[in-house]
Amino acid sequence: MGRTVTVATCALNQWALDFDGNLARIFKSKGAARLLGYGCSDHYYESDTLLHSFEVLAKLLESPATQDIICDVGMPVMCRNVRYNCRVIFLNKKILLIRPKMILANAGNYRELRWFTPWSRARRVEEYFLPRMIQEVTGQETVPFGDAVLATKDTCLGSEICEELWAPNSPHIEMGLDGVEIFTNSSGSHHVLRKAHTRVDLVNSATAKNGGIYILANQKGCDGDRLYYDGCAMISMNGDTIAQGSQFSLNDVEVLVATLDLEDVRSYRAEISSRNLVASKVNSYPRIKVNFALSCSDDVCVSTCEPIKWRYYSPEEEISLGPACWLWDYLRRSNQAGFLLPLSGGIDSSATACIVYSMCRQVCLAVKNGRVLADVRRIVYDETYTPTDSRELCGRIFTTCYMASKNSSQDTYNRAKLLAEQIGSYHVNLNIDVAVKAIVGIFRAVMGRSPQFRVYGGSSRENLALQNVQARIRMVLAYLFAQLSHWARGMPGGLLVLGSANVDESLRGYLTKYDCSSADINPIGGISKTDLRCFIQYCMENFQLTALGSIMSAPPTAELEPLADGQVSQTDEEDMGMTYTELSVYGKLRKITKTGPYSMFCKLINMWKEIFTPREVASKVKHFFRMYSVNRHKMTTLTPAYHAENYSPEDNRFDLRPFLYNTAWTWQFRESSGSHSYDLLGF
Predict the structure, then answer these.
(1) Which InterPro entries does this chain map to (predicted)?
(2) Dihedral through CA 107, CA 110, CA 115, CA 116, nearest 10?
(3) What pLDDT score does 656 carry?
(4) Contact between residue 10 and residue 261 where contact means Cβ atoms under 8 Å apart
(5) What is the distance of C-alpha 172 from the center of its chain?
(6) Could you tell me whether strands 82-91 and 71-79 are parallel, antiparallel, or unpaired per DSSP bridges?
(7) What is the pLDDT of residues 315-348, one digit of tens each?
(8) Where are the alpha helices (DSSP H) in 90-233?
(9) How far is the C-alpha of 154 from the C-alpha of 360, rounded, in Å?
């Protein structure tokens, strides 16, 4: 009697609508995958997307590479004029089942209900009439469509899809009670700092309570937007991890294989009496009979896999690897020749530079392991080039630029220069004073008045305008140098401009609209200042970048106001009226805990009772909400940033709120509770 089965899962770096590339990666994996990539968004509305999906499916069905393997691929399918997100499961040129998704992801970054309808008929199937192009390949006119499981000669298989694993009523619960022994799940779960353990725990707990084998496939890479899908394909049995895929990798295709004993599942379940009592009363699933066995009749001597311990990354390692992989995908898929970064010598731009350097390190390692060389040669326009040193590669594809003004200090100049030398970037120093003088001169010629900084007697409005002119000129120069610096050096190609505003500054609006925060992409836009400081420390210790020591110890400053005796007179936290630590707290309460001004005040008077009086807390809450709401309009033009925090204020699809507020918040600040009135306006 056969008892051992060999199962496989994969993590593929699919790209939205890249049908040719996605098909090639599926062929290479021979596993579970998505035909389209994940982030097709409103392209799902297009009939072309459905057509091309079926064309790719036909190629897969015909291919010798998919024979004698039960394959599971994802694609949109329209049934009775309703569009569903589906898994198509097939074997030897025959479609066994089209399984529509029953629980859709519709929170945070996901809007599946915009494009798809959930299948609402549990344990029901109907006939689906196949398109003629598929009929010609399979010889089938109709196939089962709906909520069913597959019964092979030796076991029973069920399929979950992505969000269904995260739901409180996950299908694997009822499937397992009905005798399904192997569960598959093809997921599009994106990276967030400190999230990996949640996904792993969900999979392992699914098999711990009910027994069984769970096979998770997950997208990897930049699919074409702000998210980075972080792989972590895994195989779990009876509550233990059996195989772990990489979380961050430049490898487009990763396949995990494990050989397991079905009798281990059966004996595990047999002694859980509470499970068996419930299982005896469960409603049965429709079973699609499959004339195929996963096991061999003579497999007594076949060795099986043992449990392993999952290896988690620290947040600093995640920052080093995740955004770097995202940058690499963006670079190679945008057909650009590298990056340009305005490097100020502060923590944020230095952290961005370190992420690019980490990317170069990973690229060199991947080349050493026989991968990504073709992409590297295409990016540098050299078919003979083979990178072996990350600093040398950095010099080819990464340009840093220190844009000084009369308000810049010698300290930041030195820090930027030394860091550029240590990572190997091509570094440019320039001075923007001539351009600033010209812009202000135009205003003076037209209006007849010349604005002054506050220290020279100017008003707050004049002071802010003069700071903004400097910041916006830096943005214009960044794009000029990105387009032409390679041309001036006799090299082909243009550069992508990198932004370096962190998530806390975006939340507070502590940035100039259309300044250097305006760029093509921003690898740190979803990362807090606190985490970036820890990341800088990590780079000092692991990349031997000693220049980061002085950057860590210096107070964050924009250097947009005049120096005092050659020293910086302006600091970020003083300008903002709050610390970066406080900003992170405000951000998490506002977005994750979902508090308005009054609820935030109620929580903070307890959280901060040892350090601030209720009056001081009220003042801080009012100041945050005023500054947040005054500056919310800046989020509409925020540079696309790597999504790494669940309190991101990104306006595109994650944090949907007005950008024109009544910034007085009169009712909210006046709110009271019971007999204890806390009038925030009074405070």
Answers:
(1) C-N_Hydrolase, C-N_Hydrolase_sf, Gln-dep_NAD_synthase, NAD/GMP_synthase, NAD_synthase, Rossmann-like_a/b/a_fold
(2) -70
(3) 81
(4) no
(5) 26
(6) antiparallel
(7) 999 999 999 999 999 999 999 999 999 999 999 9
(8) 112-115, 132-138, 171-177, 196-210
(9) 48
User: In 3-state terms, what secondary structure has residue 18?
Assistant: coil
Q: Please, are residues 342 and 515 in contact by the beta-carbon 8 Å criterion?
A: no
For residue 169, what are the CA distances in angstroms to 10, 141, 150, 535, 639? Answer: 26, 34, 21, 38, 38
Q: What is the mean pLDDT of residues 57-61?
A: 96
10 Å Cβ neighbour count for 383? 8
The residues near 354 (Cβ < 8 Å, ≥ 6 apart) are: 320, 423, 535, 536, 539, 543, 545, 548
Measured in whole angstroms, the distance separating CA 250 from the mean position of its chain's CA atoms is 15
CA distance 36 to 56: 9
Residue identified by tokens 């967030």 is 192
DSSP helix/strand/coil, 581: helix
pLDDT score at 674:
43
User: How many C-alpha atoms does 422 have within 13 Å on its Cβ side?
Assistant: 19
Supply the DSSP string of 410-445, one letter for each residue.
HHHHHHHHHHHHHHT-EEEEEE-HHHHHHHHHHHHH
pLDDT at 132 over 80: yes
Average pLDDT over residues 599-628: 94
List the Cα angle 377/383/389 in 5-degree steps. 50
Asked if 1 contacts 302 with a C-beta cutoff of 8 angstroms, the reply is no
Note the pTM of the prediction, 2 decimals.
0.93
Q: What residues form DSSP beta bridges with 82?
A: 79
Compute CA distances 392 → 386, 396, 426, 506, 668, whole Å. Answer: 11, 7, 10, 33, 56
Q: Is the predicted pLDDT of residue 683 greater than 70, yes or no?
A: no
656 backbone dihedrals φ, ψ, rounded to 5°: -90, 110
Residue-wise pLDDT for 437-492, tens only, equals 999 999 999 999 999 999 999 999 999 999 999 999 999 999 999 999 999 999 99
Q: How confident is the model at residue 572 (pLDDT cuts 50, 70, 90)?
A: confident
Residue 666, class by beta-carbon neighbours within 10 Å (0-12 exposed, 13-18 middle, 19+ buried)? exposed
Q: Which of 154, 297, 296 is nearest to 213 (CA)?
A: 154
Counting residues of the chain whose pLDDT is more than 70, the rounded percentage is 96
Alpha carbon distance 163, 176 (integer Å): 18
CA proximity to 165, closest of 223, 121, 101: 101
Count CB neighbours of 170 within 10 A: 20
* β-sheet with 125-129: strand ranges across: 33-34, 71-79, 82-91, 94-100, 142-146, 125-129
CA 179, CA 497: separation in Å to the nearest integer? 54
Asked whether 532 and 655 are in contact (CB, 8 A), the reply is no
Pairwise pLDDT comparison (662 vs 678), residue with the higher score: 662
Average pLDDT of the chain is 92
What integer is the mean pLDDT of 586-612?
94
Q: How far apart are CA 108 and CA 54, in angstroms?
A: 30
